Amino acid sequence: MRAVVLLLVVMVAAAARGDDAPDGRRIFTAGAAPPCGVCHTLAAAGTEGEIGPNLDQLKPDSGRVRRAVTSGPGSMPAYDSLNEAEIEAVARYVAEVAGKG
After folding, report:
1. How many CB atoms lie within 10 A of CB 36?
2. Which of 35, 73, 40 is closest to 56 using CA atoms?
3. pTM for the whole structure
């Protein structure tokens, strides 16, 4: 119940601001294909992936996340299916919450 109330508060606040920007957490957990959390641990997102780097330990800035999402370093795929706004949203989200969950 508490989660539902929190979600409604966030949605109302976003609507009041006219904020229709993509949700970085949603993209990280479900919007990207495959979802980022399948491979990466990020406590704030509730993910415990063990294939890629632990983002809570790495604490990347948004530029590093953006480069990783667009270029796909190592075995990570490039996320060509995400648009610029979605990439920016997930980059900001990860940079803001990594190591703080």
Report:
1. 27
2. 40
3. 0.78
**What's the half-sphere exposure (Cβ side, CA atoms, 13 Å) at 10?**
10
Residues found in the chain: 101
Q: Which two tokens stand for residue 81?
A: 């299916």
Summarize pLDDT for 33-51 with one digit per residue, the tens: 999 999 999 999 999 999 9
The dihedral formed by the CA atoms of 92, 14, 43 and 74, expressed in degrees to the nearest 10: -30
**Which whole-number Å values give the CA distances from 98 to 30, 46, 59, 71, 90, in the listed order?**
18, 12, 5, 20, 12
C-beta of residue 42 within 8 angstroms of C-beta of residue 55: yes
Q: How far apart are CA 98 and CA 91, in angstroms?
A: 11
